[in-house]
Amino acid sequence: MATETARTEVPPDVTEHLTTDDRTGLLRAMLMMRGIEERAMTLYRQGKVPGSFYDGFGQEAVSAGATWAMAAEDRLCILHRDLAAHIIRGVEPWRIFAQYMGRADGITRGRDGNVHFGDRTKGCVGMVSMLPDMMLIATGMAMAFKLRGEARCAITWFGDGSTSRGDFHEAMNWAGVQKLPVIFILENNQYAYSTPLDQQFAVNPIERAAAYGFPGVSADGNDPEAMFEVVRAARERAIAGEGPTLVEAVTMRMHGHAAHDDMKYVPTAQVEEWRAKDPIDRQVRRLEALGVDTQAVRDGVKTEIEEAVERALQSPQPDPETVLDGLFADEPSLLEDGNAPWSGFRS
Amino acid sequence: MPTMTYLQAISDAMREEMRADERVFLMGEDIGTFGGAFKVTDGFIDEFGPKRVMDTPLAESAIIGCAIGASVEGLRPIAEMQFSDFVSCGFDQLVNVAGKTYYRMGLSVNITVRLPSGGGFSGGPYHSQNPEAWFMHAPGLKIVAPSTAEDAKGLLISAVRDPNPVLFMEHKHLYRRVKGDVPAGSYETPFTARIAREGTDLTVIAYGAMVHTALEATADLDGSVEVLDLRSLVPLDEEAILKSVRKTSKVVIIDEANQMCAAGAQVAAIIAERAFEDLDGPVVRVATPDVPIPFSPTLEQSVLPQVDDVREACRELLEY
Question: Which residues does the UniProt record annotate as the domain Transketolase-like pyrimidine-binding (chain B) (predicted)?
């Protein structure tokens, strides 16, 4: 039970659409994301993860909250700091570790690295480094839904830097012209690699949504429930045929762009300010006020991660004999539905 | 068998596929009410409606990117670039998304991109290009380039049904200039080469409009000249190339495209690597020099391979 004192520390409930199980599920997805990425960073330092390593420390709420609002038949084009989206859709953690290590059982079978993956059997398309190419892919998916008269929606994430490139404009414009069921999540984490916002744009891109004929909404990107609520409403709007929504998830990239980046260009005070808004700490406080045993959730996640690492380490390296395989498809191989754990889809 | 122009055959292929398969739809600039810059989709909006004959904003990256998104959801878009030159604005979506998605994630991208290409009518530097080699260098994209009306229809139907991204190079100068018998109904043409004329003394290898240049240039030569129409650039029919070269031992390769790293350069490399011992003379290339395609008719004709250029190259090689 929440005490009087605790209630003042707990952030106000932002949504009436979440059960305690939903809220715990959001915490679990964020803990899983952070735990997997921390463990993978260790594997990287041990030389077991080739290439570089990118994480979304501090941004876990953005993908967790948004994905929680998506239905099984919806489609996701996911960015590299959004691991919780893959986890919620049902990608098994051991395959994520195998992916990082370039093993045969990774989602891309060693063809691509890092978080550059999407499990087509879960309705997910992995990121392309030319940001934000995936905005157009999501827009095209939404176009297919509209053409077939289906009540489904597509969602994609991209960063503040992406708003400078032409595909941002082309996707926003086309989605606005056709009133497509697509949700654009602008993950504003204050820096595009080392470039701060004031060198990226003269006008906050959320204000540009109006110019394309649809709403732009800013949300607390460090609160999974705030993200859920904004995206849930955007999805309702999309399904109703009212068109796209641009959601700005205001957050902070707490680590460097990648493992090599010491982030010297970020003032310490800014990092400390955001550390106090850590999304996992906030969700833990919220759940403890509701009487949930969050330590048990942590323990479960930790055990699962250790088992996943062990299993992934057993996965073979991909066979060089197969390197030319799979360039062209013999048969269509399309997207399938993923997990949609939100209680609202079960009632 | 009905006689059709090359352009009519392209329209016919799309009409057949759209009637038979509701997953097939068209996207492009000015293709609906206007019927397309070259009228390839004239009347389509009346038969199929604006949902399946979609006029898009002027945004090539969006046309290709949205086609990819619709295709991974099970549709079969045919996207038109108004001129193949404009595909440069959609280059990234083709090269980095369409070409790599199946290899990376096992997700097939069933899109066809129609690229009205080629010069010969004072289109100037931005309406005359042959950009196929840009994409031959990008793994994961198939590229076909018909020279006849019959192949235009069959290759386009094959492209639409292929679960991979296919670039369909349709030569603008052939649209109304080339006519031929085209089978009624639906048929697929394989992505392989075709012998346009049999011969024994020399092989001319070409594709698209240059097949006609080759046929005309070698019709009256003192020697039996084989003309091999590649039809498909990716996959490239290496066996057909080698078989013909081994038979004739002499080869002239024509590209309307700029010569540097053109399709013909790859053909020459294959012959050098795998048929060197069979050759009785140097591999000869006739191609457009590496300049933008100029506007003035006299300048344009001076760079694009002409019938006389090909005839002279063949005559010299026959005498070698």
Answer: 4-177
pLDDT band with cut points at 50, 70 and 90 for residue A16: confident
* Angle CA B31–B34–B36, to nearest 5: 40
Rounded to the nearest angstrom, the gap between the alpha carbon of residue A252 and the centroid of all alpha carbons in its chain is 14
Q: Answer whether B104 sits within 8 Å of A139, measured CB to CB.
A: no
State the DSSP H helix or E strand holding residue A176, giving kind and residue range, or none if neither: helix A166-178
A contacts of B142 (beta carbons < 8 Å): 328
Q: What per-residue confidence (pLDDT) applies to A220? A: 96
Strands A195-196 and A191-192: antiparallel
> Would you call B124 an interface residue with chain A, using a CB distance cutoff of 8 Å?
no
Cβ <8 Å between A140 and B25: no
Give the minimum alpha-carbon distance from A6 to chain B in angstroms, rounded to a whole number.
46
Q: What is the pLDDT of residue B69?
A: 98
Residues 6+ apart with CB under 8 A from B74: A144, A332, A334, B23
CA distances from A286 to A24, A273, A298, B303 (A): 10, 20, 15, 73
Put simply, the chain A residues between 174 and 193 with a CB less than 8 A from any chain B CB are 174, 177
A137 touches chain B (CB under 8 A): yes
Which of B56, B104, B141 would best serve as a mutation to test chain A binding (most A beta carbons within 10 A)?
B104
Whether B136 and chain A come into contact, CB under 8 Å, resolves to no
CATH 3.40.630.30 at B3-181, yes or no: no
Parse chain B into domains and list their residue ranges: 3-181, 194-319
Binary contact (A116, B51; C-beta < 8 A)? no
Touching check for B62 and chain A: CB below 8 Å? yes
pLDDT at residue A12 in the model: 54
- CA quadruple A65, A70, A72, A75: dihedral, nearest 10: -110
CATH code where residue A185 lies = 3.40.50.970
pTM score, whole prediction: 0.96
Least confident of A96-100, A151-155, A212-216, A256-260: A256-260
The answer, for B139 touching chain A at a CB cutoff of 8 Å, is yes
| Nearest-neighbour CA in chain A from B302: distance (Å) | 37
Residue A81 domain-assigned? yes
Measured in residues, chain B has a length of 320
Q: CB distance B102–A326 less than 8 Å?
A: yes
Of B111, B232, B141, B106, the C-alpha closest to A325 is: B106
Question: Please, what is the end-to-end C-alpha distance for chain A in angstroms?
Answer: 26
The pLDDT tens digits for B37-66 are 999 999 999 999 999 999 999 999 999 999
Give residues with Cβ within 8 angstroms of B226, minimum separation 6: B195, B197, B198, B199, B200, B202, B203, B204, B244, B247, B248
In contact, A259 and A41? CB cutoff 8 Å: yes
Tell if the CB–CB gap between A331 and B110 is shorter than 8 Å.
no
Q: Helices in A46-70 by DSSP H: which ranges?
A: 60-68
- Is position B137 annotated as part of the catalytic site? no
Domain B194-319 has CATH 3.10.20.30: no
Residue in B127, B171, B173, B212 annotated catalytic = B127
Show the domain range for A248. 36-315
Task: With H, G, I as helix, E, B as strand and everything else as coil, classify residue A76.
Answer: strand
Residue A186 phi, psi dihedral angles, 5° rounding: -85, 105
User: B68 at the A interface (CB within 8 A)?
Assistant: yes
Number of domains in chain A: 1
- Per-residue model confidence (pLDDT) at position A55: 96
Q: Is it true that B3-181 and B194-319 share their CATH fold?
A: yes
Distance (Å, whole) CA B262 – CA B287: 9
**What length is written for chain A?**
347
